[in-house]
Amino acid sequence: MPKEKACKNCKRIYEGNECPICAKKETSETFKGKVEIVNPEKSTLAKELKINKKGIYAIKI
Ligand SMILES: [Zn+2]
């Protein structure tokens, strides 16, 4: 199983070489908490985390 990592820039959790959202390669493997944002326009958590695309994100890096 590939290790999950979180983008340090936008907090997106992904597997692979670069972030699918912002294309940055700086990651953290020690993130805390995971949240799935399904509807970023309606989610207050998404606003707090400054997320505008759906996906799985780390709460804290
Ligand atoms: Zn990113």
Describe this structure as you would to a colleague.
By secondary structure, the chain is mainly beta. The protein has a single domain, classed as Rubrerythrin, domain 2, CATH 2.20.28. It is 8% helix and 31% strand. The protein has one helix at residues 44-48; strands spanning 5-7, 13-14, 27-28, 32-37, 55-60. Strands 2-1-3 form a 3-stranded antiparallel sheet, with no helix packed on it. Strand 1 (5-7) and strand 2 (13-14) form a beta hairpin. The longest helix has 5 residues, at 44-48. The chain is globular. The mean pLDDT is 93. Residues 7, 9-10, 12, 19, 21-22, 24 line the site of zinc ion (ZN).
Q: What number of domains?
A: 1
Largest sheet composition: 3 strands, antiparallel
Q: How are the strands ordered across the major sheet?
A: 2-1-3
CATH 2nd-level architecture: Single Sheet
The CATH class label is Mainly Beta
Helix fraction, binned, reads: under 10%
Strand fraction: 25-35%
Small molecules in complex? zinc ion
Query: What is the mean pLDDT?
Result: 93
- Return residue spans where pLDDT drops below 50 for at least 5 consecutive residues: none
Instruction: Give the helix/strand class.
Output: mainly beta
